[in-house]
Write a structure and sequence with these properties.
The structure holds 2 protein chains of 2 kinds.
Chain A: E1 4-17, E2 20-27, E3 36-39, E4 51-53, E5 57-58, E6 63-67, E7 82-89, E8 102-106, H1 117-122, E9 127-131, E10 144-148, H2 151-158, E11 164-168, H3 175-182, E12 187-190, E13 206-209, E14 212-215, H4 216-219, E15 222-224
Parallel strand pairs in A: 8-9, 8-11, 9-10, 11-12
Antiparallel strand pairs in A: 1-2, 1-7, 2-6, 3-4, 3-7, 5-6, 12-15, 13-14
Helix pairs in contact in A: 2-3
Chain B: E1 4-5, E2 15-16, E3 20-22, E4 44-46, E5 62-66, E6 69-73, H1 81-94, E7 99-103, H2 108-118, E8 124-130, H3 137-147, E9 154-157, H4 163-173, E10 177-180, E11 185-188, E12 192-197, H5 202-213, E13 220-223, H6 229-237, E14 242-245, H7 248-251, H8 256-263
Parallel strand pairs in B: 3-4, 3-14, 4-7, 7-8, 8-9, 9-10, 10-13, 13-14
Antiparallel strand pairs in B: 1-2, 5-6, 6-12, 11-12
Helix pairs in contact in B: 2-3, 3-4
The chains are: A mainly beta, B alpha/beta.
Chain lengths: ~230, ~260
């Protein structure tokens, strides 16, 4: 599906604790896990670049984003707010079969990883979410175990457990964490990148991979860690 | 029906149906924004910069917003003209508006090689030559002069910081039109340096246009931070023959169809 301009409406907000809010949106098209939408969350011209909206939950007609305190749009978005989305940006995630244990690793935006757990949980697998900072864990599916602490230590403790791991660490994993992730087979990263255009026009999201330079906005936001090369 | 002849001194000319163009550096190489708007509303599409040989992304790439816009540093990665022609020629041929290929070249020999590739392509209507801010005057003159020996109209894209000086050089070398739309360079705390885009750029761009209009008697394609119909009209009133839209396509893509409609002349 090509990137399109899509009108959306916020239909309800959920306060999650720790100042976070989950906004449920209705739109004619929605991103799949591994994709995002771009949108300006606010009435004025600032911030100049659009926000990157990752889906954190789905209902039959709706999908949700999560905003942390201080994020653009956190205090602007209300039920009834209209949004102009650009997307879906990126490719839907193509992950291995859902059986086995799933390890999720995040610092600032753990909810962006939650959609990846659905297939594993539905298939009877187990999911473990490792966090580096406090988070309203009551908003997380009760079937997902949550641990909070120093991420490298947590990852080291659980590195042999998963069949599949997905990390989303902003702005990017520190060297110690990156080295630990690299030792986990089937470790993936959900990229946190600035996407000025989202369609492959501005070339701002170039990514160095083993197959050459790629654009995150068109080639995808979820990558097998082994496919990525150190970014200079 | 054409509303504008952008290269009246060229034997083929460059007739456009609209005074609004897609600026180089923001809209991609071909149809990246085809899902957002109808390109038939554009007077022309100007490609992202293409070099003769493939060019890798900059080692340190940056997209950093600031009040009024965004600083972007990419290194203008591109596959090189030969590979680009293989990839995009069919798309360029199908586009409902003329295509102007932006070339960033280092020598007259490269100009000759690139023109040989482009002159046989359907719907490629002109070339726009881009120059670095520190480009030597002699080089600018030579590249423009060589390009003008080809079959396509030649537009010289003036570096923001030396627009008036380079306008005279390009005009004397035979350019058929001038693009006064290159983004300025800037530095933000970090420090990080790159091209500046956004509505904050508009006053400087309009100032540049006025300076070039005062000394050059060639059709001018103006641009830089245009985000509204009023700003585009101000460019036209200041002497631009046509207006280039740049980063508004990133910041307000959903409003583009309405903006183009408002500017339909």
């Amino acid at each position: 599906m090509p990137v399109q301009a899509i009108a959306a409406q916020c239909v309800r907000l959920e306060l999650l604790g720790h100042g976070r809010v989950r906004a449920w949106l209705r739109s004619s098209a929605r991103p799949q896990p591994g994709q995002c939408m771009l949108a300006r969350l606010g009435p004025g011209p600032e911030p100049y670049l659009p926000s990157v909206l990752f889906p954190v939950a789905f209902e039959p007609e709706l999908w949700a984003i999560e905003l942390a305190p201080g994020e653009a749009g956190r205090d602007w978005l209300q039920p009834g707010s209209s949004l102009e989305l650009l997307g879906p940006v990126g490719r839907p995630a193509a992950l291995p079969a859902a059986r086995g244990n799933l390890l999720l690793i995040a610092n600032a935006q753990p909810a962006r990883l939650l959609p990846f757990a659905a297939a594993t949980l539905d298939a009877g697998g187990a999911a473990l979410l490792l966090l580096s900072r406090p988070y309203p864990v009551e908003s997380v599916d009760a079937r997902i175990e949550v641990r909070i602490g120093h991420l490298p230590a947590l990852v080291r403790e659980h590195s042999a457990w998963p069949a599949l791991a997905i990390a989303h660490v902003e702005p990017q994993p520190a060297p110690e964490l990156a080295a630990l992730l690299a030792q986990i087979p089937n470790a993936h990263v959900l990229l946190s990148v600035c996407l000025p255009c989202g369609v492959g026009a501005c070339q701002a999201c170039t990514l160095r991979t083993r197959a050459g330079w790629k654009l995150a906005c068109t080639a995808g936001l979820l990558w097998l860690l082994a496919e990525l090369q150190a970014q200079p | 029906m054409a509303v504008l002849e952008l290269a009246p001194n060229h034997k083929i000319g460059l007739a456009l149906r609209s005074r609004v163009l897609a600026a180089s550096g923001c809209w991609g190489f071909a149809d990246e924004y085809a899902g957002i708007l109808d390109f038939a509303q554009l007077g022309a599409f100007i490609t992202n910069p293409l070099t003769y040989a493939a060019r890798q992304p900059a080692a340190t790439r940056t997209a950093l917003a600031f009040p009024g816009g965004v600083l972007l540093h990419t290194g203008f990665p591109n596959p090189g003209l030969r590979a680009a022609v293989k990839t995009y020629a069919a798309k360029w041929a199908r586009m409902p508006c003329p295509v102007i290929v932006h070339l960033a070249l280092d020598s007259s020999a490269e100009v000759t090689l690139c023109l040989a590739l482009l002159e046989r392509l359907e719907n490629v209507a002109a070339v726009e030559l881009g120059f670095r801010a520190d480009e030597h005057a002699h080089t600018i003159s030579e590249l423009v002069r060589t390009a003008c020996t080809g079959l396509l109209p030649v537009l010289a894209a003036l570096p923001f910081e030396r627009a008036a000086e380079c306008a005279l050089i390009a005009a004397r070398a035979g350019a058929h039109g001038l693009s006064v739309s290159a983004p300025p360079r800037g530095t933000l705390p970090g420090p990080v340096s790159g091209r500046l885009y956004g509505h904050g750029v508009f006053p400087g761009a309009l100032h540049n246009l006025q300076a070039v209009r005062a000394i050059a008697d060639l059709p001018l394609l103006a641009g830089g931070g245009v985000h509204s119909a009023e700003q585009a009209q101000a460019m036209l009133a200041a002497g631009a023959a046509a207006v280039q839209l740049d980063s508004v396509v990133w910041s307000q893509p959903a409003q583009l169809p309405a903006l183009l409609q408002a500017l339909a002349l």
